[in-house]
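User: quick one, fold this
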Amino acid sequence: MTTQPPFTELDLNAITERHWVDRGDFTDAEFDRARAFYGQMRVHDDRLEQVRADAAAMISEWTGHKPRDVGSFGTRLNLETSDLDLGIGYPVEDRDRLRAVLAPHTAFLGERKTRYSTSRLVFSFTLDGIEIDLSALEVEDFAVACRMLDQIDVTMTPDERIAHTWVKHLLRSSGRTEEYATWKLTTYARFCPEFNWVPIPEKTAGT
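Assistant:
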């Protein structure tokens, strides 16, 4: 059974059912707490950016494809224990070669649906104590994902990022794991509804 955290005035049930949150859902005092928490998350940016750059260079060397951050750190919606999620686009006919070149360096986590007719391959490795998840999407799907991320960069306001991250923190800290897993994907689903944004079971408490 889950409980409403005592330190929030937000109606988390209504917000998770609506799949979005914005400044208007907050009292001034609640938003001050959310803004302070978001500032604490940004303290980790320099380290995560360095690890991301190192991981991207390794992936480029292994695969010949330049990765992009497709996860919560790239959208600045991460929590303090965030892992990193990178994505590449690859021709579907290169699937076997891709798995072969990544096999010595990564663990293969499986194949997941992306759209009704396409899927992505997911790999994982650890660098400097941070888990790196690598999604290999078909070229067209990767282009769609990049357009979505560009739109998030331009469209999502600082207040929306603060609000989203605060709700994410509240859901995780109150043990509402299924809602937390779904909430992590609400931004992607809002800006790219044609993808199949299915919650991924938690490997750790991060992201």
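User: anything notable?
Assistant: The helical segments are 12-18, 28-42, 45-63, 95-102, 139-155, 158-173, 177-183, 186-191.
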